[in-house]
Amino acid sequence: MKNFTLTNFLSYLFAIILFALVISQNHPSFKLNLENPKIEPSLCCQKENSSKNETSYKKTLEFFASSLDLKISSFKKENLLKFSLPKPKNKNKKRKNLDQSSKLSQATLLSKFNSFDLKKPKSKIEITAQSALAIEPQTNFVFYQKNPKKLLPLASITKLMTSFVALKYFPENLILEVPSEIEKIESAHGKLKPKDKFFLKDLIYLMLMVSSNQAAYTLQKNLNLLPLMNLEAKKIGLEDTFFEDASGLSEKNLSSAKDVARLTYYIFQHQPLIFEIQKTKEITLRSLEGNLYHLKNNNPFVNFPNFLGGKTGWFSAEIQNLVSIFKLKNKKMVIIVVLGSRARFEDAKKILNLIEKQN
Fold it and tell me: Which mean pLDDT values do the consecutive 10-residue runs of the chain (359 residues) have?
């Protein structure tokens, strides 16, 4: 067995040596042209040498095939590089495809976004108000809006801020005297007698339940509330709001539906007594001089079970204002503001009905 292995090894070695010798004798690079080293062979000689080289290669390969028991095919130049290299990928084409798919996906997203229904009214409603806003204050979700930043006279909605600063900076049981010139102040309801005396809290009831301009004037005359009202407006972040008087009789008392909603929710959070008063249907007050004042809430929404409070405002037949807070069936809160309306309660009801259908 060992002798057989050695014999095979020697035969392989001999074949390799013989192959090397044949190549050295036949390859043109190993031949030395001693006769005329500078003269290159002619073209016909090059062809003849080429055919001889190919014959020599073939014989050598046949020799090794017979020695090693291998099968070979005849040598042909065209067999070289038979395989084809993979074509380079067209990066631009791939990029183009990616861009197209990207555009398609963006277009799909945009179409979905544009068609996404933010609980917009499914049916259009016609309201007379120049400006309106219905918003869920906890999330700032807007149910309905119409020119929410338009500036309009506030009218008696002013009294929300008057009540707020009076209760914030002064005690409820502070005694205030009605000014002697009170009869000059226009007031459809809640007319006061000159020199009569009230607790501050009772004047708040008069302002919020029957919108008494004389009660607002009494507070302003005694406490100089205007600087505090404008100061609080800045603190709360009311960008469109300015107060010229405490009652809302001045046309320079200006605000927007957006600011009114913000003010309403702020007061609801920080001075809940104001909204408790606004929900009161009827009350009789007695002044310190013994005069009786019977008050009946003039807000039609006071009979709505989901009404949490609100304030009316009347500047003219063309500029009627209203702000109201309601609690919806799903426990959400909604603040509805209408400004510059010709039919404030009807406008607010249309908006409320629309929201209740959606929720």
Answer: 57 64 50 41 44 50 46 41 43 50 43 36 78 96 96 97 98 97 91 96 97 96 97 96 96 97 97 95 96 92 94 94 94 96 96 91
Q: How many separate helices (H) and strands (E) can be counted in the chain?
A: 10, 11
* Fold annotation for 131-358: Beta-lactamase (3.40.710)
Read off the tokens for 6.
Answer: 């050695």
Domain boundary assignment for the chain? 131-358
Encoded amino acid at 102, one letter: S
Alpha helices in 211-328 (DSSP H): 213-223, 226-236, 257-270, 273-278
The H or E element that residue 59 is part of is helix 43-68
Global pTM value:
0.66
Q: Which among 205, 242, 211 has a CA at the least distance from the CA of 227?
A: 242
